[in-house]
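Below is how a single chain appears once it has passed through the pipeline. First comes the sequence as given, then the structure the pipeline wrote out for it. We keep one example in the README because the format questions we get most often are answered faster by looking than by reading.
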Amino acid sequence: MAMTLRIPEELDRQLEAVAAAEHISKHALLLQAAQLIVERRARREQICEAIDFVTTHDEALLERLADA
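Resulting structure:
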């Protein structure tokens, strides 16, 4: 899907520098950044689900540990 992205000049310069250092295009750099954001959010959701699972399934154990 095509999309137009307006980037402030200073950020654009910084992206140019990073892309040049990585030997990739700004386009590829921004795709990598977007993928990292998606992966980080998915990982955060997995962690929250795991914490919810532990707190609901091991509630009694957690209470005993708190009292110890």
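The two ends are 57 Å apart (CA to CA).

See the next section for the split statistics.
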